[in-house]
Amino acid sequence: MTTKDIAEKLVSYCRNNEEDKAYEELYSPEITSIEMAEPMKEVHGFEGIQKKGQWWQENFEVHATEVSDPLVADNHFTVKFWMDTTHKPSGHRSQMNEIAVYEVKDGKIWREQFFYNSES
């Protein structure tokens, strides 16, 4: 698959709440995922992605999401996410925009990094 193919499939999976399919099909076992802040600032491999997903589900209720079309440049692509969530421990509801940058190597996503306002 080309980077464009991978980007379009990832967007489709995210829009349909099928992230598990994306991890199984599109991600490298050597994936590195980087956030702006702790507690899941940097995780590695499928085990790290799984722990990060579990943490997210335990801490956030997602009310709505929007996923942009991908923008592709060589072996990188970016996607903008908008989310309306409630932080379960505090009950605080908020909306956020996030830019995700992905790097493709050997036909798989092997690095993802997320950018957002971590001060709100």
Structural commentary:
By secondary structure, this protein is of the alpha+beta class. It has 3 helices and 7 strands, in the order ααββαβββββ. It has helices spanning 3-15, 19-26, 45-59; strands at 27-34, 42-44, 60-67, 71-73, 76-87, 92-105, 108-115. Strands 1, 2, 3, 4, 5, 6 and 7 form a 7-stranded mixed sheet that branches. Strand 1 and strand 2 (42-44) form a beta hairpin. The protein is globular and about 40 Å long. The termini are far apart. 10% of the residues are buried. The model has no long low-confidence stretch (mean pLDDT 95).
Q: In percent terms, what proportion of residues is strand?
A: over 45%
Based on Cα principal axes, name the global outline.
globular
**Structural class, from secondary structure content?**
alpha+beta
Count of extended strands: 7
Instruction: Look at the structure and give the mean pLDDT.
Output: 95
Q: Indicate the percent of residues in helices.
A: 25-40%
Radius of gyration: 14 Å
Number of helices: 3
Ends distance: 38 Å
Order of H and E elements = HHEEHEEEEE
Describe the main β-sheet briefly.
Answer: 7 strands, mixed
Low-pLDDT segments, ≥5 res: none
